[in-house]
Description:
- This protein is mainly alpha-helical.
- It has helices at residues 2-8, 13-33, 38-55, 60-78, 82-105, 122-145, 151-169, 175-196, 201-227; strands at residues 107-108, 111-115.
- The radius of gyration is 18 Å and the shape is globular.
Amino acid sequence: MPKQKKCEGYFSKREIALWASSVILILLSFLIYDRENYLTLTASLTGVTSLIFNAKGHPAGQFLMVMFSLMYGCISFNFAYYGEMITYLGMTMPMAILALISWLTHPYNGNKSEVSVNHVSNKEIWFMLIASAVVTIIFYYILAYFNTANILPSTLSVTTSFIAVYLTFRRSQYFALAYASNDVVLIVLWILASVEDIRYISVAVCFVTFLFNDIYGFINWRSMAKRQGHAG
C-alpha cells in the first residue's frame, strides 16, 4: 500500500494535466488531419510521455526516447527528411541509450526515480559548441548529397539536436531548453511538409506539445538543481 501511494503521488496534478492535455491535442490532430498513419500517432504519444518522465529526471524518459527516435526516423524517411532520419537514428537514439545508462548510474541520493543534476563547466560548453559546429558542417554536405527537403531548417535541426542530446547525456539542467529550441525548428519543418501533405500537420502539433513539455521540463530541472545544491 505505501508503495502504491508513492507511485500515485509521483506526478503532480499540474504534470498530469500537462500530459493529458498533450495527449488530447495529439489525438484530436490525428483524427482531424490523418486517421491513417498510426506510426505517427504512436510516436507522438510515446514522445510526449517520455518528456513528462524526463521533466522529473526519471530514466524511463530516456528509454521511451529511444523508442520515439526509432519511430520518428521512419516517419522522417517517408517525407525525405533525411537529416531528421539520420539525426534521430544515428545520433539521438544512440545518445539516448548513453543518457539512459548515465541517468541510471547517477541517481540522486540513491533515488532511482531522480537523476543527479550535473554542472557543465564553461570549458566543456565551449567544447560542445565547437563540436556542434563541426557536426553541423558535416551534416550539411551529407544532407545536400541526399537532396534533403528544406535543407536549411533541417541542418539547423541537426545543430539543436546535437546540443540537446549532449546536455542530456551530461545531465545538465539546460538540456530541456535545448530541446525546446529544437522543437521550434521541427514545428517549422513539419508545417512546411504539411503544405504538400496535410496529414503532417499532426506531426507539427506533436512538436507543439513537445515544446510546452520541454519548457516545463526546464523549469522543473531548475528547481531540481537548486534543491540538489546547484547554483546554476
